[in-house]
Amino acid sequence: MSGLESFVTANRDRMLEELKALLRIPSISTDPAHDADCRRAAEWVGDHLRQLGCPTVEYLASATHPVVWAEGPPAPGRPTVLVYGHYDVQPPDPLDEWTSPPFEPTVRNGDIFARGATDDKGQTFAIIKAFEAVLAQGKPPVNVRFLIEGQEESGSQILFDLLAKEPQRVAADAVLVADTPYYLPGWPAVETGLRGLCYAEINVRTSRTDLHSGLYGGAAPNAHETLVQILAALKGTNGRIKIPGLYELVERPSKEIRDAWGKLPFNERRFMRDEVGAKALTGLTKYSVFERLWALPTFEIHGIKGGFTGEGAKTVIPAEATAKVSLRLVPKQTEKKVQRLLAKAVKAAAPKHADVTVKFIHGADPVVVDVVSRPIELLSQAFKEVEGRGVVPVRSGGSIPIVPELGKAGAPVILSGIGLPDDRLHAPNEKINLEQVWKGARVFGRFFQLMGEG
Amino acid sequence: MSGLESFVTANRDRMLEELKALLRIPSISTDPAHDADCRRAAEWVGDHLRQLGCPTVEYLASATHPVVWAEGPPAPGRPTVLVYGHYDVQPPDPLDEWTSPPFEPTVRNGDIFARGATDDKGQTFAIIKAFEAVLAQGKPPVNVRFLIEGQEESGSQILFDLLAKEPQRVAADAVLVADTPYYLPGWPAVETGLRGLCYAEINVRTSRTDLHSGLYGGAAPNAHETLVQILAALKGTNGRIKIPGLYELVERPSKEIRDAWGKLPFNERRFMRDEVGAKALTGLTKYSVFERLWALPTFEIHGIKGGFTGEGAKTVIPAEATAKVSLRLVPKQTEKKVQRLLAKAVKAAAPKHADVTVKFIHGADPVVVDVVSRPIELLSQAFKEVEGRGVVPVRSGGSIPIVPELGKAGAPVILSGIGLPDDRLHAPNEKINLEQVWKGARVFGRFFQLMGEG
User: Fold this and answer.
1) Is A327:A301 a contact under the CB 8 Å cutoff?
2) Which residue from B58, B168, B272, B359 has the least number of CB within 10 angstroms?
């Protein structure tokens, strides 16, 4: 048994109590009523890191949602690893679907249930315990820095602003982000890419006011009809997005990458039936499901506002209609470029008699991480030693806006966590498997050691 | 000056007070809080007809919204004219847009403003005053019967049920309905047709629950996307409805009718700009605006429900979407036939992986009235004598569900009123022009006399 394993095994009970203490704090960053709780969570993390031996602990850029900055004991001449994580959590609604209350962490069958268990308190905690375990072995093998924010669930604006002013914060030899799951139990993963996002509202106005369909139907334009025509023009029934120029910007993953995805255990039928809950999978079906989810852009309609949607029958010709739509973006589709393409395509599909506008309300650039970096090799080796299997390269179809900023000083960003796919992040009964946390402490600890060995 | 004109002129002030008394009653049939007011309005009409000399007055089929049935003094051997009208009114909202309160009738510049002024209290009142004026001249020239209901604005179910049980109520030589306007000031009109209606909800379900577009976008079906595809398949950008079989059921108005419409004074540019408030008129533009509004079917989207339409950006793939749609129907498109065609076309446009249903929630068959009936000729003659111009044949793009029932015993139904196009029915500041009411009393009185002469 390694020193790390002995340490983790010997200290499990205490560590579990510490994790529970962190999980008890309802640090919901989207709700100002929980500002003081967010501050409490930040201080719990900062105090804990100081107790573990960090000579420097700072609370930066905000009184209510400070970025916790901590530096471990110096390891002169050794590499620097920056750890990113977040102490804030999603709201716990709907409360009545929780088996045990979201802020009363409860262990059942080896899982600990609480809001934030996997996203991201439990995962960040695993790295902190790795740091503690490594220090318990003797001299620090690397310089460890912690950048733990409190606004990941609400836009990260404070951290964006901080890094714009103090870009040297991310100067490191590797950035470790544990905010994603294993591919499957027993299959550690490294995210080699995240899709970006371009979220927009398409508004159509066709007349001054709503009109009576009996009196004017047949001659008056209908805003919903025009919007439907525009939306139908933007995507074919075959799943192909008909925004000129969009696919030209797609950088297809290499054959090696696609072959690696092809070797992942995956049952398409079960995915369709049990995860998606649909009778068919759609999209560009000549590409694999992984390529469609991770490496191809999407165009989704989220909802359509306007007209009459109440009970019964109102015969109104709507004067105005608004669709909420978004595209997921893949390299090299930057948000800005895709905004231009979408606006142009909408304009081309709009009839002259309608006033049509596109408003952009949210977005993120896509991210690709070089999968062959030395730090990722070392992390994979750490996983192999502890788990018996190295990391498999996967991507995520989702978006984490801050990730590009973390890599801006040139450090490879490693997105690799110890959650499991069924952890129910953002949903009721969120949990993390405790065995995964203890394994995580060993893996990340071993990673620090390997980084120190070079 | 005719006897009718002298009578109306001599009694104007009293009649105006009577009209005000009727307009003061807030007989809103869609709101149960006004049940007692509806009953009060029914009794006002019944009492008034009894005072004018009706030996028979009955309140039928309902305690709160009775159908008022009244028979004038018998005119043995003479024809029978059935008068249809309604004493109920639309809700007055939005209240703050009224210049004077909706149930405090106020005269300004020769117009009387109140909810129900033109729809339909003022118009029914004009016929009642015609009846009074005729009786003042001596023996009744015709048998007059009144069928004045209190649920026209809320579905007419009570009257439908009554006429199903007592179909002889509509046995007459003519049915007079004054619930429509002149074509223009100085241009009395007879409606020779009403469009029918087929109102439906198209529901699409594509997955068990809403899904996260980051995790599943690219492979999961989107209910709004499917609904948009179906709606786009049902109507072309050229305005043509793509429901197979629909246009085959259209009976085009004769060349004479279309020529008559072509002679109506009409400024398409002003209609587009001032009435519709749009930059273009749409639909099957190779047909005239009148043909599109009165004699061609429509397909309108009224609203689309489901997904996310709140503030901000939620990246949900909707599992369910529902569109409210309706078709206006023209002869010989019965509601039942069109229901079948729509259901079939939706099914044909739906992809296999989606659960798509069509639910029909409201409707009416189209109506055509034979424009060359003897009673219409006589009414036209009455208008010519009073107004200097006979009726022009027009149609209405709207629907009055009870009208087919009124003609079921074979009597020609005459839809001809004395409102003006700017009376703002169903809207704030509804009014009727008092000169129109007094002219109406003379016109309808003269019609009774001419019917009596045969």
Assistant:
1) no
2) B168
Could A326 and B362 be called an inter-chain contact, meaning their C-beta atoms sit closer than 8 Å?
no
Check CB contact of B91 with chain A, cutoff 8 Å. no
Tens digit of pLDDT per residue, chain B (454 long)?
Answer: 799 999 999 999 999 999 999 999 999 998 899 999 999 999 999 999 999 999 999 999 999 999 999 999 999 999 999 999 999 998 888 788 899 999 999 999 999 999 999 999 999 999 999 999 999 999 999 999 999 999 998 879 999 999 999 999 999 999 999 999 999 999 999 998 999 999 999 999 999 988 889 889 999 999 999 999 999 999 999 999 999 999 999 999 999 889 989 999 999 999 999 989 999 999 999 999 999 999 999 999 999 999 989 877 778 899 999 999 999 999 999 999 999 999 999 999 999 999 999 999 888 889 888 777 999 999 999 999 999 999 999 998 877 789 989 999 999 999 999 999 889 888 889 999 999 999 999 999 999 999 999 7
A-contacting residues in B 143-202 (Cβ below 8 Å): 195, 197, 199
**B chain contacts of residue A322, beta-carbon cutoff 8 Å:** 309
| Strands, E assignment, A331-449 | 355-364, 367-368, 392-396, 413-415, 431-433
3-state DSSP call for residue A311? Answer: coil
Of B214, B225, B324, the CB nearest to A399: B214
Q: Domain ranges for chain B, please list them.
A: 3-194+366-453, 196-250+297-364
Mean pLDDT of A82-95: 92
Task: Enumerate the residues of chain A whose CB falls inside 8 A of the CB of residue B220.
Answer: 276, 278, 281-282
Pairwise CA distance, residues B427 & A209, whole Å? 13
- Distances, alpha carbon B18 to alpha carbons B124, B146, B342, in Å: 13, 18, 49
**Residue B182: CB partners within 8 Å, gap ≥ 6?**
B188, B189, B417, B418, B419, B420, B421, B436
| Protein fold of B3-194+366-453 | Aminopeptidase (3.40.630)
Assembly ipTM? 0.86
Pick the CATH number of A196-250+297-364 from 3.40.30.10, 3.90.226.10, 1.50.10.10, 3.30.70.360: 3.30.70.360
Q: Which among B219, B284, B314 is the nearest to A293, CB-wise?
A: B219
Out of 3.40.50.300, 3.40.630.10, 3.10.580.10, 1.10.260.40, which CATH number does the structure's domain A3-194+367-453 have?
3.40.630.10
Instruction: Give the C-alpha separation, B232 to B282, whole Å.
Output: 16
CA–CA gap between residue A302 and residue B171 (Å, rounded): 56
Given a cut of 80, whether residue A88 has pLDDT beyond it is yes
**Contact in structure between B194 and B335 (CB atoms under 8 Å):** no
Q: Is-contact A381 A250, C-beta < 8 A? A: no
B208 touches chain A (CB under 8 A): yes
Q: Give the single-character DSSP code of B184.
A: B
3-state secondary structure of B329: strand
- In this structure, what are the phi and psi dihedrals at residue A17, rounded to the nearest 5 degrees? -65, -40
Beta bridge partner(s), residue B301: B325
Contact status of A330 with chain B (Cβ, < 8 Å): no
DSSP per position, B346-415: HHHHS-TTSEEEEEEEEEE--EE--TT-HHHHHHHHHHHHHHSS-PEEEEESS--TTHHHHTTTSPPEEE
